[in-house]
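Researcher: Predict the fold of Kinesin motor domain-containing protein.
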Amino acid sequence: MQSFSNGYADSIVEPTFIRVVLRLRPLIGEAAKLSYVEDGFGSLSLQDFPQVAGKATFFTDANDTNKFRFNRVYDVDVGQQEICEDIIGDNVTELLEGFNVSIMTFGSEGSGKTYTMFGNDREEGIVQRMCQSLFDQLDRLRQDRGNESTVSITFYELFAENIYDLLSIEKHSNILKTSSVAKTSGLSIKGLRTVSVNSVNELLSCINEGQFRRCKSGSHHRKSRSSSFLNITVEQRNRTEETMKHSVLQLIDLASSNKLDKNLKHGISTDEIKSANSSMQNLHQMIYELSDSKSPLPKTHNSKHSHRTSRLTKLLQQAIGGDSKTTAVMLSSTNRTDRENTVTTLSLGSKLKSIYNFPTQNKMGLNSKAIFDLSLKNMTTRENSYLTRIKYLEDEVSRLSSTIQQNKNQVLTNQYLTEKNMKLKDQLGLQRKSEQTRKAGSEKDGLHSQSNEKTQNEMSDVLDNLMRKCEKVIQLQLRLDEELRQKSQISQQLSYKESKVQALEAMNVKLLEQLDNNEHEMKNVLNTNSILRKEVEKWMQLAESRSQNVEMLQKEFQDRQIAGASQNNLLFLPGELNHVRDASKNKKGNWLFGNSSSNILGSRKISNVSTGSVMTINSQESNTSKASHRGLNLHAVRLPFGDENENYNDKNKSSNT
Ligand SMILES: Nc1ncnc2c1ncn2[C@@H]1O[C@H](COP(=O)(O)OP(=O)(O)OP(=O)(O)O)[C@@H](O)[C@H]1O
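Model: Structure tokens for Kinesin motor domain-containing protein follow.
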């Protein structure tokens, strides 16, 4: 490879081909797919494409007509991250070594140029990833080698051969003036804003601002036909090594390469369509010319001439055939209906791949004259940018001061009118008084002429009229005051009532809470009651069954006692009790009757007898005793219930013993 000097001491120029990669865009919806074969070595063959409209010039190789060669082909299924990282590759490192770097996207409408360069809401593009990598590496160089660096950017778009500043501080950016640089066949843009940034966030927010302005500046076709140029300038100084590096990263999102039909409506004027089409045509032509030139010599007469045809080609002077390390990203559709555009893109890509660039390492000794020239140039650019900003701010200040002045004048006029009004009122009062005095005087004297009297009468009428009006105004004012007072009273009452309503509502809430509590307690009591009721029923059933048992036992006992008595020959004289002493202590029961000799005479159920176990009644005292029983003691024994029987048996036993 031949080397050339670029004019700076120690700078080496190494001619190198532009790196060209191809990204195939996935199909949208149900579109029919172009059949192609990617051989894995950067060659793409279109299978169903023998020729397009006879444009054999599109083919890269006369013997191998369908083959287009690239440095790499990314098929439809390769993701954004992998593509971006591969494209960025060593570019940031080379930039920081002092080489200018250019990356440009190229393709027809909707092929994914902006998506690949700037990404979208969900995925970052080349720009974001490169900016991050740039600041990461600058940080590392500062820490490891003590490099001091400054980063500044310009961001503009070219639409229909007009340049607009995307970082302009004006709301609507104007067309910027340009002048050709004879030496380099490049373009100098006047009044372009340069912004210095200190962090990746500052840089990205500037870029987002510009990109937002570009997308919002008009119809989709306007954006599609515009090319954006993002230039990031990096300056690094190393005081230990006494070197300085200066490099520019150019990120170019080119306008769509397909022609726009000027007979259709696109939301842009016919002139603009014409200009955009011819601008793109010039670029295609330049690419063909440069690729045909087999000479690796930089800046030949031909190459300079090729760049001069339009502003677009002049702006691409550094990237195509210039001093940049350039990567061209060709974006292509795989849709069968886009075949013609695809072939154009593939052909241009193949052509670009055969163009020489002449990357130069811009590294200088710190004491060299070049560094001062460069610093001077940078300072001039910055000064221009500051001057533009200062001018804008001055305009703003003067606009605001004139608004303030207008407001001030208005206030002064108001003050003046109020004062004048007051004076007139005073004058009116004085005139009225003097008129009254004069009237009184003239009545006294009777010397006034009739005409004077008439004038005076008229004046006095006018004055009266005015006074009446004034009085009316005063009355109206008073009425207004009164109404206002009433309104304020009503509003006070209303607020009082509102507060009362609020208090009542609060009370209501409390009462409802209490009611809830009571209901809850009531439920608890009812539950307890039902449990108790069940208990009582259980106990009653138990009592019932016991009383049945007792009755059975009692009966058994009675039967046994009678049987026992007959066995022991116990004899009772038959008797009858009908005498009751204490009714409250009486109990129903079966009683045995007998005489003092313990003979059971009989058993009888009686209703009213004392609960005492044994009653002894002298039959002689009894009113009801029968004659046959007189002189005998009658014993009556109540047969006890249940457990009472046992006591009785015990007693009986003890009395027997
Ligand atoms: N490889 C891809 N994968 C997924 N979506 C893509 C791809 N390429 C492009 N798109 C989507 O297609 C749409 C058009 O892409 P983009 O705007 O990047 O195209 P363009 O070439 O810049 O178009 P134009 O020149 O008209 O401005 C966008 O919504 C984008 O997100």
